[in-house]
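Q: Predict the assembly, please.
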Amino acid sequence: MSAILIRDLRLAFRAGGGFGLGLGFFLILAVLVPLGVGPAPQVLAAIAPGILWVGALLACLLSLDRIFALDHEDGSLDLLATAPVPLEGVVAVKAFAHWLVTGLPLVLAAPVLGVLLNLPAPAYGWLVLSLLLGTPALSVIGAFGAALTVGLKRGGLLMSLLVLPLYVPTLVFGAEVVTRGAAGLSVATPLALLAGITAGSAALLPFAAALALRVNLR
Amino acid sequence: MSGPAKPSSYWEYANPVRFMRLSDWLLPVTAVAAVALTAIGLIWGFFFTPDDFRQGSTVKIVFLHVPAALMAINAWIMMLVASLIWLIRRHHVSALAAKAAAPVGAVMTVIALYTGGVWGQPMWGTWWAWDPRLTSFLILFLFYLGYMALWAAIEDTDTAADLTSVLCLVGSVFALLSRYAAFFWSQGLHQGASLSLQPGTRMDWAYKAPLYVAMVGFGLIFVALLLAGTRTEIRARRMKALIARERMGG
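A: Predicted assembly structure:
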């Protein structure tokens, strides 16, 4: 299991692309939004939590096909499926690797982009915390979507259509934490619900994803 | 082997031949009943009920809106059950019925959203509001789209049935979560449930009776379209098998 994790991380770091692309996309989005809606600080402050969460979500979505597609192409996914480790574990580890490569950098970069978007001061801590709790769910749900579409030729667009509706609850609760944090309200309820979604997804979705992978590999 | 025995349980209809024989007469019956009941419900509701004293005649769109919304949700629940049956017992009719239900459910969702907008424009002053009920219906529509897109994208029917079933199961959980998330996220304009099993009247029987008729009518429309769609799917698969056999035989 740890061998798979190390292998995935090595591939992401050395093969190039996967690591920086999501971050770059996140940065560009944070630059484009003020250009689109105008530089008024109040407007930016009001929409910053939502923009940052939507940006993180889309950046995560962009890199999802890397979870299984490359391994499927060169046949190593078949080897992993016949390996003595359970496929569910493989899925979970690969989703975790995806989070380390994509989600964690987004969490760390988000406060910087928050400055660009004039995010109110009390919200920074909640932004980092909500992304830290929420992005693992994005990776696991994304791994399920990637497993569903792994055998398809142009699966990327279809995967977006499948995965984005599944991201709705995570986005709602995540952005709500930051919005409430910015307004100085209590964030306990959305934060707990967000953590619950992450915990539930991480516990159950690897089974669904492994089932989909087995179907696609048969 | 003598002729087929009389079916002793519902599972017998998982046999496509039995299903085709049953739906052969069930389809016209439900189709006629569906058209009749829907027509009665709608005409009764539109023309033979009194106007509401505050909302006037606009309130009568409820006879179209509520049955469509009901069937939009029920179609998804039916797909969920059919998907479970396919995953557990691998009856092909079940998978094909789930496939046939999706477009019907999607159209019902659109009808509910559209009639809601038509009513909301004069009443709320807007076609669309990010109200939790409206939002969760829009999200449900997106789930239908994704489900149908996945069916369309995969060529092998068994693989497609497996993957869409898993998507339906996972999607059901997330659709439910989205609903609660939407209710958490915004306070709505939409009124509470029009009908309820709880005691206490919300609607007068003058409105309730035609509404119930229209609801049964819409349910039968769904069943009729579902039977027709499933029959088409079964025939399409038979045709595929015949073509394949023809090629093999050369």
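Chain B has a mean pLDDT of 84. Chain B touches chain A at residues 139, 142-143, 145-146, 149-150, 153-154, 159, 162-163, 166-167, 169-171, 174-175, 177-178, 180-182, 184-185 (CB under 8 Å).
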